[in-house]
TrEMBL record:
It comes from Macaca fascicularis. Its cofactor is FAD. The gene is CYB5R3. GO terms for cellular component: endoplasmic reticulum membrane; mitochondrial outer membrane. It is found in: Endoplasmic reticulum membrane; Mitochondrion outer membrane. This is NADH-cytochrome b5 reductase. It is a lipid-anchor. Residues 40-152 form the FAD-binding FR-type domain. It catalyses: 2 Fe(III)-[cytochrome b5] + NADH = 2 Fe(II)-[cytochrome b5] + NAD(+) + H(+). Its EC number is 1.6.2.2.
Length: 289
């Protein structure tokens, strides 16, 4: 009799256990593990690949804790890299070019500021040169998410005036973006998030400033997005020095009143302006208005 009850119990409980296991598996799949669980904790990530994009630009790929992990970085936020260089702690902000659609890795596209190449910064960029010197398998510390702006989709931005303030929600129809050099990576992050959602009708206008045409970072990615989403993404370049003898190329000149009037000729209803300026050493500092 005991054996019969045991068997009966097994028969009755098995479907319940099977359903429970299935639900747990589905739940785990729908909520991938997040790497950046706390902005106050540093996470050591391992370099697994380096791609040379140009003479001074690299794509660094770092492994997340498991192939099923995502970074866990909201759109509009950035991370900090920290390392001890020549005995000093160096911290720099960067925005990944990968997203939480990518599992198991995070990609950073970084311009390496080599020493003795810029008269104003003869020592070059400490962090970018450190990254250039890293070997496959080396680790570096990530911390985040950080930042005062989060894009929530459908034209909705949550913006904090400062770190201690609650976010203010702004809903816009257009976003005017001005980026210089490596300041393009935060812009690309937001643009990609908008363009991948067919129900997001927000229009992005980007003015991208560089010294020369060869310095235009992530140009193929930007122009692919423009070609695929021409109604929602408008792209202009401006250069300090235009190619000699060539017309129909990116405009030459400083970003100022004239270039802004040329780019943003149409007045925007409910428009958010976002700028990214270069920090010394290759980081970026966001501002918005």
């Amino acid at each position: 009799m005991g054996a019969q009850l045991s068997t009966l119990g097994h028969v009755v409980l098995s479907p319940v256990w099977f359903l429970y296991s299935l639900l747990m598996k589905l739940f785990r799949r729908s909520t991938p593990a997040i790497t950046l669980e706390s902005p106050d904790i540093k996470y050591s990530l391992r370099l697994i690949d380096r791609e040379i994009i140009s003479h001074d630009t690299r794509r660094f790929r770092f492994a997340l804790p498991s192939p099923e992990h995502i970074l866990g970085l909201p759109v509009g936020q950035h991370i900090y890299l920290s390392a001890r260089i020549d005995g000093n702690l160096v911290i720099r902000p960067y925005t990944p070019v990968s997203s939480d659609d990518d599992k198991g890795f995070v990609d950073l596209v970084i311009k390496v500021y080599f020493k003795d190449t810029h008269p104003k910064f003869p020592a070059g960029g400490k962090m970018s040169q450190y990254l250039e010197s890293m070997q496959i398998g080396d680790t570096i510390e990530f911390r985040g998410p950080n930042g005062l702006l989060v894009y929530q989709g459908k034209g909705k931005f949550a913006i904090r005036p400062d770190k201690k303030s609650n976010p203010v929600i702004k809903t816009v129809k257009s976003v005017g973006m001005i980026a210089g050099g490596t300041g393009i990576t935060p812009m690309l992050q937001v643009i990609r998030a908008i363009m991948k959602d067919p129900d997001d009708h927000t229009v992005c206008h980007l003015l991208f400033a560089n010294q020369t045409e060869k310095d235009i970072l992530l140009r193929p990615e930007l122009e692919e997005l423009r070609n695929e989403h021409s109604a929602r993404f408008k792209l202009w370049y401006t250069l300090d020095r235009a190619p000699e003898g060539e017309r129909g190329r990116p405009r030459a000149g400083w970003v100022g009143g004239a270039s802004l009037q040329f780019t943003f000729a149409q007045p925007f209803a409910r428009c958010l302006a976002v700028t990214m300026a270069l920090w010394e050493g290759g980081g970026v500092a966001p501002s918005h208005g």
